[in-house]
Request: fold
Amino acid sequence: MKNKSIMILLLIVVVLIGAGYFGANGVEIGGTKYESAKDSIDLGLDLAGGVYVVLEANTDATGTELRQMMEETKAIISKRVDGLGVSEPNIAIEGDKRIRIELAGLSDPQEAIELIGKTALLQFVKPDGEVVITGKNVSDTTVIFQEGDMGIQEPVVSLVLDSEGTTAFYTATSELSQETETVDRIMYIVLDGEVISSPVVIDPIADGRPVISGDFELEEANNLTTLIRAGALPVEMIELQTSVIGPTLGLEAYNRSILAGIVALALIFSFMILVYKIPGVVASMALAVYVSIVIAVMIGIDVKLTLPGIAGLVLSIGMAVDANVLIYERIREELKADKTLRVAIDRGFKRALTSIMDANLTTLIAGVVLYSFGLGPIKGFGVTLIIGIVTSILTAVFFTKYVLILMANVTGSKNTKLYGA
Amino acid sequence: MKVIKNKKYTYLLSISIIVLGLVMFFVKGLNYGIDFTGGTLIQLNVGEFVELEDAREFMDPFDKNASIIYAGADKQELIIKSTLDLSNEEISTIVNSFVAKYEMDDNNFQTQKFGPLMGKEIQGRAVLSVLIAAGLMLAYISFRFQFKFGVAAIVALIHDVLVTLAIYSVLRLPVNSSFIAAILTIVGYSINDTIVIFDRIREELKLNQRATLENIIDGSVALSLRRTVNTTLTTIIAVSSLYFLGVEDIKVLALPLLLGMISGTYSSLFIATPVWFSLKKGKTN
Reply:
């Protein structure tokens, strides 16, 4: 009995140390490389760095009409973001008429914000104000280089029009080329009400392949093609909130929070062992299990770790010990009442259990409310709190009790002093 | 522990703190973060100390009234807050002027922009969340214990929210969206603590049917005192680590959490318990 208990205890310790080691350093099994926990966990923007923008549709539309409009807007914004080459962008409709866009790891956030929020209504307008074609008539667009006025190669945006656009464009250019005055022969190219190019029409264009040249930098020309390709937004979007977090700042926040977590753990281990002796050792093991499970669950269900989320996690470590404290205090009382160790452990658990359940379930209510009603990072805080509470109940009830009984087998029931008597 | 006998003093202490907070609140108001007021925030880790005047020089063309404060161990970080809705281009210009002059890492910054409506919404959500949470917890406690325990727990909870507000208004901590997280955590922690004490009272009531209510309460508090102290200490260890090792954003969350949790522990012992006693006595008299 005693030897078997020692073996099991040793096994648990080895597994825990192994889990800690692989969690910290990653592991390679059968050719598959598993990253360390620190690198596998999904980071929120406040830790990874990046941009997030919340846009609101400026419209009075409601119901199905609004929903359709938002879906369309989301699809167009997604296409524009693809043009930016961001990995795993997160674009979501929030509430009725808001869109939240999260882009991690961008080099030029400024450019992204401008590109995303633009309505991007492209129009070709005659001098009399008549709109000839819009972005909808464009079937393809590319950046090409052509010789400019100064004789140097410059980037221009070349369009391919659909058949309807080709016809309209031909009719309009034929008309304009008949005019005598130069001012009357200008075809204005307008983007969101702003003239970006005003070429003079010399001959009618029949092939439906107009070119926009406007002293573009290559990047500007690229962005314009992205905008035209994705199409115009069906509604004007107003920028409600924009955050830009530099990756270095996010990384520092992450590293320092991890350090805070490790220091907190080490201090709590020491405190528990000092105060509770053998049960303190069990509590420390339970805490190690607790932290491993919480981190594994967060990686497993792809919870995005945010800064408030880390705070919630470190805090939950402090609170997770509470269940152990409650149990050991009860065991101590039972021992003081001259119960044998085994009976004391049994009764202590039973009596502590109602407190643990009631106290944790009430806190769970707060966590669920936080998750359901919180916005953005607060939601993350709620998730970590919920995972923390559930795991804390499970480890305290099952793991702590099991290991404590093993410990009692090893130390024998004489040494009740080691258990707080 | 003569919890009931000394309730006059403990009530007085709580009321003084809350009144002080209310006075500060009405005199100076709360230090709302820009996500509540709307505006622009620029946080830069310049890597070296920047004279306030030099920083002002960069900001003046955009907002002469912007608040500029230092952060970080060596004051190497700047936090610039403007109530104006600066354009993204203006923000870039400001950040770039620091990057150029101080040769700082151009990734080591953070900017935030909030429309004024966002703040109202966050505020509304905060109040709503606390109310919903309180309502649900009251229901749960009434179901598991008795209605009067629930009422006493909610009184303690309101106490903790008010004390937390007092902490924010006296220490001038920024009230931003993490403020909601702080309040709710404190509420959760405090309720947790209160339930443990109430659970003990419930148990002692069953075991000693002849003892006076006052003795039962004092006895229960005494019996759970070691647990209360030890749990509070471990939590303080965790939150202090965050406070001393975390970055600025975590610090402003950790400080109210630390004080709020002490208030939460205190209110479980010295507010919730005597309030329940008075409610219970009120019926028998």
Observations:
- Chain B touches chain A through 74 residues (CB under 8 Å).
- The domain at 7-33+117-284 of chain B is CATH 1.20.1640.10 (Multidrug efflux transporter AcrB transmembrane fold).
- Strands of chain B lie at 31-32, 39-45, 67-71, 77-82, 109-114, 174-175.
